[in-house]
Specification:
By secondary structure, the chain is an alpha/beta fold. It has one domain: NADP-dependent oxidoreductase domain (TIM Barrel), CATH 3.20.20.100. Helix content is about 40%, strand content about 15%. Strands 3-4-5-6-7-8-9-10 form an eight-stranded parallel beta sheet. Strands 1-2 form a two-stranded antiparallel sheet. Strand 4, helix 2 and strand 5 form a beta-alpha-beta unit. Helix 1 runs parallel beside helix 2 and helix 4 crosses helix 5. The longest helix has 14 residues. The termini are far apart.
Length: about 270
């Protein structure tokens, strides 16, 4: 299956559905990435702190897929802050991955108490100028964090990757960032197992109406909302199911019912303190 792409403000395209690599061990990561690439995935969302970039690189090499067909993301961690840190960190990341460039390079967390988000962003601009990252962006940034870098630099982030799922839809943040050209990526799109999707009655009813799973409904909802997602799974059958969300479409009424599930339940770390 070929996944359609969408255009980022950098001029590069990104598949809106990928595979998340959070909390996967090295051996497990290589197997999962190999299976995902064989199924048709081309978007891999990783980070230095996940500790599995070497395995991602091995899987890419084993696949034999041309580099230009893949979209690889990595991220800076909290100890890689400041203007110079990204310039060294990207070289280390590329060595671990065995790649000449990444498609997307993100500041993983704003860490507002450190006050280094703008300096770090200016370092990412320099990385982008070298061609070692084709697009640059941020992750877990609040509106005030985004304003700091947008107002203090010449580059608008290509994406902001944030927690987003049916019970935490980030509508105020999206209303601010998307008109600026910042695409929304949603991590934990299925709630990270912190609550039971099946307990939300609208989802079960919508799934039954389309003859698909609740998880497929939620992923399809993200895509129709314009949110880029990369659910994580270690099971081949779930990887296949997650990919099979392009053959049906939710109605306007169904989309509205899912929007009504938002009750502000954050299941991950709050960026104000993380």
């Amino acid at each position: 299956m070929r996944i359609p792409s969408i255009r980022l403000n950098s001029g590069h395209d990104i598949p809106p559905l990928g595979v998340g690599l959070f909390k996967l061990e090295q051996d497990e990561t290589q197997r999962i990435v190999e299976q995902a690439l064989e199924l048709g995935y081309r978007h891999l969302d990783g980070a230095r702190i996940y500790g599995n970039e070497e395995a991602v690189g091995r899987a890419i090499r084993v696949s034999g897929i041309p580099r230009e067909e893949l979209f690889v993301t990595t991220k800076l961690w909290r100890d890689e802050q400041g203007r110079q840190a990204p310039l060294t960190a990207i070289d280390d990341a590329l060595e671990r991955l065995g790649l000449d460039y990444v498609d997307l390079y993100l500041i993983h967390w704003p860490h507002p108490s450190m006050g280094l988000a703008l300096d770090t962003w200016l370092g990412l601009e320099e990385v982008a100028a070298t061609g070692k990252a084709r697009s640059i962006g941020v992750s877990n940034f609040r509106q005030e964090d985004l304003a700091t870098i947008v107002e203090g630099s010449s580059t608008v982030p290509a994406v902001n990757q944030v927690e987003l799922h049916p019970r935490f839809q980030q509508r105020a943040l999206r209303a601010y960032q998307e008109p600026l050209g910042i695409r929304t990526e949603g991590w934990g799109p299925l709630g990270q197992g912190k609550y039971d999707l099946a307990e939300l009655p609208a989802l079960g009813e919508i799934a039954a109406a389309h003859g698909v799973s609740i998880q497929q409904v939620v992923l399809r909802w993200h895509l129709q909302e314009g949110v880029i997602v990369f659910p994580k799974s270690s099971r081949p059958e779930r990887l296949r199911e997650n990919l099979d969300v392009f053959g049906f479409e939710l109605t306007a009424e169904e989309l509205e019912r899912i929007r009504g599930l938002d009750d502000g339940l954050r299941v991950g770390t709050d960026p104000a303190t993380g």
